[in-house]
Amino acid sequence: MGRLLAACILAVSTVASFSVQAQAPAPLPIPLPPAVQTPLSRPLLIGSGEVTGFYYPAAGALCRVLNKEAGGAPACAVLPSSGSAANLKALRSGAVDMALVQAQAAQAAQAGSGPFKEAGAFSELRAVMSLHGESVLVLARQGAGIENISDLKGKRVNLGRPGSFQRAMAEAVLEAVGLSEGDLAPAVELELSEQSPELCEGNVDAAFYAGVHPMPEAEMAVNECDAQPVAIKAKTLDAYVKAHHWITRSSIRKAAYDGLKDDVASLQVRALLVTTTRTDAETVYRWLKAFHGNFSALTHLHPVLRGLGKGETAKDGISIPLHDGADKFYGETGLK
What we know:
Layout: H1 2-22, E1 44-47, H2 55-70, E2 76-79, H3 84-93, E3 98-102, H4 103-111, E4 125-140, E5 157-158, H5 165-176, E6 187-188, H6 192-200, E7 206-211, H7 216-225, E8 228-230, H8 237-243, E9 247-252, E10 264-276, H9 281-293, H10 295-299, H11 310-315, H12 324-333
Parallel strand pairs: 1-2, 1-3, 5-6, 5-7
Antiparallel strand pairs: 3-10, 4-7, 4-8, 4-10, 9-10
């Protein structure tokens, strides 16, 4: 009963606060598809992320669509969390019904590898849709002699703290372009907040910035010391992306940072909406029908979702099997 009451309170407060945070446009278009029905006697609970991050408002946008379609009592509530690992734990235990997680974490959790080895394989985990991506921007200081990604060899490069998302993406990029930590001289392990001052002072030659762009830390390096972007390009990229379904090619738009003359080739990891096989296929099908039936409105509820294409939701960065309901929806709509 306590969980139900908390969920209901969260459902109401989430919709209200999200409307302000996202500065949502006019109400979703009318008429709407039939209301989303659920066999649950409580709202659907979706695990998100920190309230100051991007997963929380993205989850709020999804819930807002479901709540609008329900037309009465809230059908969906957003639960803040510390991130992908916490969401996957909550999903496994049944504390939430769906969650936003990074594609790499989803793949590791289903396989029971890496940080999820002790918990064992989460074989019931399924993907519903792919959402926004978090890309890597490599910045080099002026005069470092770094024009191409291969020029990082022998340079002082900050990879980020061990265990951080920044570090994971930096290591993935190095492997993708045929380099390793041992090729650097030496690899540096500064916090994200520390690397731009060190880059501008010449104490490191290059640094990795992983996240949703523009990032304030990267803006500091570009604006204060004219740090230059390094495109992530190599002959080995295609093979790496093909072998690692959780990572995809991307580009950082030139409009993201002052002074960029062109889009910058990059790699990204997607946020995935996931659920489990405990959720029936018809329910997942209705979720997707609601999201895609109001897709323009959905992608304008928060900047992080703008630019998302319908086709991307069905395949980009999806590193685990699709839920049967999602497979049916994407098959019928020709998106798969």
